[in-house]
């Protein structure tokens, strides 16, 4: 049942491939209708095409990201951390590859970028605890593997393994927040720097504060420096850029959903 609900959520998010396919099918079907329906079909298909073109070019994704993350920026000095003594980094998923009985699990692009930001904050604060909240809808070994993938990325980025604490019991942002509070309390940690993607930073910050966790947000980058160097491609559609736009739209919708459920800071 959860898999069906997840699929429905993806279809309903503008920027996703299922939404595009569904939109094209609806628009094409209307072309076979009466003249008024045909006119609306042409307008719909044109609007759909323009939206997906804008969402799949870097400058379009940057605009959407700037809107959903307005007012949030990475901390650049120790004073901006306001005495935070730990870092909490939220997992952004994993990539799972399996062939002929062998498998490799690595961090997703968002998780890798979050790991880099968390490592930067680790150096800035001078050897704090780094908490990885990396659960998923999968349970048992699969959830553990997802946490280990982000753990390994943090180690590669320069965080000592002994300073990383993994929590794999959370399946969503709400549970990340509620499960982290007692984990921090047992170590006497009153304030943390919260690291997640820029498109996710507003909802996660508000959810953590609503759960009673004092956080200082520091959003991670949405693309690597290697991508930024290719300025001439900023107007060229890219699949990874469309994923960023989809994330921005999805989280804007999720903020409304969390607000209706009372899961955000009032």
Would you mind describing this structure in some detail?
There is one protein chain. The chain is of the alpha/beta class and 266 residues long. It folds into two domains: 2-55, no CATH class; 73-224, Rossmann fold (3-Layer(aba) Sandwich), CATH 3.40.50. Helix content is 53%, strand content 13%. It has ten helices and seven strands. A five-stranded parallel sheet has the order 5-4-1-6-7, with helices on both faces. A two-stranded antiparallel ribbon has the order 2-3. Strand 6, helix 8 and strand 7 form a beta-alpha-beta unit. Helix 2 packs antiparallel against helix 3 (35-55). The longest helix is centred in the last third of the chain and has 23 residues, at 239-261.
Task: Tell me briefly what this model is.
The protein is of the alpha/beta class. It has helices at residues 2-11, 17-30, 35-55, 58-68, 109-125, 141-156, 173-185, 201-210, 225-229, 239-261, and strands at residues 86-90, 94-99, 102-107, 129-133, 164-167, 191-195, 214-217. It has ten helices and seven strands.
């Amino acid at each position: 049942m959860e898999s069906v609900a997840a699929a429905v959520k993806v279809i309903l998010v503008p920027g996703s491939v299922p939404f595009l396919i569904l939109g094209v099918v609806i628009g094409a079907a209307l072309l076979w209708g009466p003249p008024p329906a045909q006119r609306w079909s042409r307008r719909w298909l044109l609007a759909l095409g323009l939206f997906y073109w804008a969402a799949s070019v870097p400058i379009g994704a940057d605009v959407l990201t700037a809107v959903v993350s307005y007012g949030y920026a990475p901390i650049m000095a120790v004073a901006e951390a306001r005495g935070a003594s730990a870092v909490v980094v939220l997992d952004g998923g994993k990539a799972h590859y399996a062939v002929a009985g062998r498998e490799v699990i690595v961090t997703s692009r968002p998780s890798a970028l979050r790991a880099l930001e968390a490592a930067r904050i680790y150096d800035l604060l001078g050897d704090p605890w780094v908490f990885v909240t990396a659960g998923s809808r999968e349970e048992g070994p699969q959830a553990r593997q997802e946490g280990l993938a982000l753990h390994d990325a943090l180690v590669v980025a320069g965080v000592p393994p002994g300073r990383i604490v993994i929590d794999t019991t959370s399946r969503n942002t709400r549970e990340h927040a509620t499960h982290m509070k007692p984990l921090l309390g047992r170590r006497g940690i009153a304030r943390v720097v919260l690291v997640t993607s820029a498109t996710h930073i507003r909802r996660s910050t508000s959810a953590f504060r609503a759960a009673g966790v004092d956080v200082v947000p520091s959003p991670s980058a949405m693309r690597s420096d290697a991508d930024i160097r290719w300025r001439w491609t900023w107007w060229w559609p890219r699949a990874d850029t469309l994923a960023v736009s989809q994330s921005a739209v999805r989280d804007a919708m999720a903020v409304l959903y969390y607000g209706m459920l009372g899961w955000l800071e009032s």
